[in-house]
């Protein structure tokens, strides 16, 4: 605990995800007072054609 589910547009590198996972873990430890080993982060890569805001697909907004 906690488990963080992060949805991002696909295409980010493993290095970016690694850095973000580290930052999220550090913030969780600081705010929640848990051990770093208790923080799980699951990345979900989403295609722009599978995400819409305001009724418009992100793939159409480009």
Provide a brief overview of the structure.
β3 and β4 form a beta hairpin. The model has no long low-confidence stretch (mean pLDDT 97).
Features:
62 residues, Macrophage Migration Inhibitory Factor, two-stranded parallel sheet, 4 strands, 31% helix, elongated
By CATH, the topology is Macrophage Migration Inhibitory Factor
Name given to the CATH homologous superfamily: Macrophage Migration Inhibitory Factor
Q: State the end-to-end CA separation.
A: 38 Å
Return the domain count: 1
Which range does the strand content fall in? 25-35%
Shape descriptor reads: elongated
**SS-derived structural category:** alpha+beta
Residue runs with pLDDT of under 50 for 5 or more positions: none
What is the CATH class? Alpha Beta
Q: How many whole angstroms does the radius of gyration measure?
A: 14 Å
Number of helices: 1
Spell the H/E element sequence.
EHEEE
Strand order of the largest sheet: 1-2
- Major sheet: size, sense and barrel closure? 2 strands, parallel
The number of E-state strands comes to: 4
CATH architecture annotation name: 2-Layer Sandwich
